[in-house]
Design brief:
The structure is a homodimer. By secondary structure, the first copy, chain A, is of the alpha/beta class. Chain A is 39% helix and 19% strand. Chain A has helices spanning 16-22, 27-33, 41-51, 62-67, 69-77, 87-93, 113-118, 133-145, 163-168, 184-193, 231-236, 254-272, and strands spanning 35-39, 55-60, 82-84, 102-107, 123-127, 150-154, 178-182, 197-201, 207-208, 218-222, 239-242. The longest helix of chain A has 19 residues, at 254-272. Chains A, B: Keywords: Methyltransferase, Transferase.
């Protein structure tokens, strides 16, 4: 960071500005302001690269500005406001124990299901009643890695904009469209109407993911970590599909299951297409 | 639990017995006693089913004894000592915030690499310098689900017997052999000597897991979460293999990467065999 910015470093962890950032750890404040908190250099880097116009402010300690000079450079090039802050100020702002000296505030501008469907997606994942922030974030990261076209999240799932979910996505939140607040039944109907098959993951299903055609457009539907999909939602999907368990494990965790499904699909679609 | 046991319920969270269980949260005490702590009904159930003779004691609250009567029944049938304890006693013993009213102490009797190799394994995973307990446990769970023959863990990785790792395995620690304390270089040599190809996972590798023959016996070698495998260890493996990233994610997390590799292998070996 240019040295001429240093005199303006934020030093008071109890200032109104700091309190306003800290408050974004609460869902109510994110809803009221439409703003979210992105912590750590990796998240901030991906935010600037892929959602630069949404950045409101970047906060960085002097040490982190040296260490992650590339990210600060990207931020300044993108015209972001970059503020130097002391370690106590960063710590007061952050939800994470160790935000690595850098965080950003951004406008949260989620895409709509209509815009996702209009783009003719071939691979989607829909999370419904997913409650664990780490799981939700890891599903988004896995969907990104597998080249999925978007992630859909039901209105009764964990809040995707919570700092813990944002951290778990490792920047993937800004790499692909993540649609939130969806009604699950209406979404299943909309997917079917657009020729996208809906595949419910269900441990006890008779068919495995090796028994279904994954080359055509489809959406994996993932239920709650503990109890899976409610029967009526599983029944509303075009097929119920199990991941084979070859050993003695009872199940895979949600993020692992989603990643295996999405990678199997990506492999099939690339081989088939 | 039979009502005649209730009069002997443990009620003092500061008793020597409780302190001795609590102390198993520390590595030094696990090493000194050769005992480990297994928390929650799922872990205790799998411990009793698959490693019954190693169980030293089972502790359960009255509420959990009603709720998980099947596990208590299994424990009594297996001849385990089952002790009723109050909620404060369970809370004092446990490492977890919520052990769901049940935990067990067991002897830890890990298998040796020699015994694993003597069984003619076809699919293995070796973790080296893995530091996060949740990652390590999830790799063990994924290896179990994928039907791997064993998990190998280097001496510079997280302690597999720590309560957090044990919890993350969701019982899989007792489903397949988990060999610990291994020297990585010596293990790679031993695997090669037994005709087991060693495949280093490496983000930048030229070959992907779709370019290698996975039908023959092999071991996936997973490095540290942040920096991967040291170059000299990657070079010592028979091949360096990348998981293809189809989107914009920089990488997958360790547990996801291991699970994808192991499932791809399991699918290939079952199709090929």
């Amino acid at each position: 960071m240019p040295s001429e910015r240093r005199p303006s470093a934020l030093t008071n962890p109890r200032s109104d500005r700091v309190r306003a950032v800290t408050a974004l750890g609460r869902r109510s404040m994110r809803s009221a302001t439409g703003r979210i908190l992105i912590e750590g250099p990796q998240g901030v880097r991906e935010l600037i690269r892929y959602a630069g116009p949404t950045v409101v402010d970047v906060y960085v300690t002097a040490a982190a500005a040296d260490r992650y000079a590339d990210v600060v450079g990207d931020a300044l090039s993108a015209g972001c406001y970059v503020h130097e802050a002391t370690e106590p100020v960063l710590a007061a702002m952050a939800d994470a124990q160790a935000p690595q000296g850098m965080l950003a505030v951004a406008q949260w501008a989620p895409p709509t299901l209509e815009s996702v469907l209009a783009a003719g997606p071939r691979l989607l994942v829909l999370m419904t009643q997913v409650r664990d922030p780490g799981n939700a974030g890891t599903v988004i990261r896995g969907a990104d890695a597998a080249g999925a076209d978007a992630v859909l999240v039901s209105d009764n799932s964990v809040d995707i904009t919570s700092p813990k979910v944002v951290r778990s996505t490792a920047g993937s939140l800004f790499h692909l469209p993540v649609v939130t607040g969806l009604d699950t039944s209406a979404t299943l109907a909309a997917l079917s109407a657009h020729g996208i098959r809906t595949l419910a993951t269900e441990g006890g299903a008779a068919r495995t993911l090796h028994d279904v055609d994954l080359t055509t457009p489809h959406a994996w539907v993932m239920g709650n970590e503990a109890w899976g999909l409610p029967p009526e939602l599983a029944a509303a999907c075009d097929a119920r599909v199990a991941i084979p368990i070859y050993g003695r494990a009872e199940s895979l965790n949600l993020a692992m299951a989603a990643t295996i499904c999405l990678y199997t699909s990506a492999t099939a679609q690339r081989a088939g297409g």
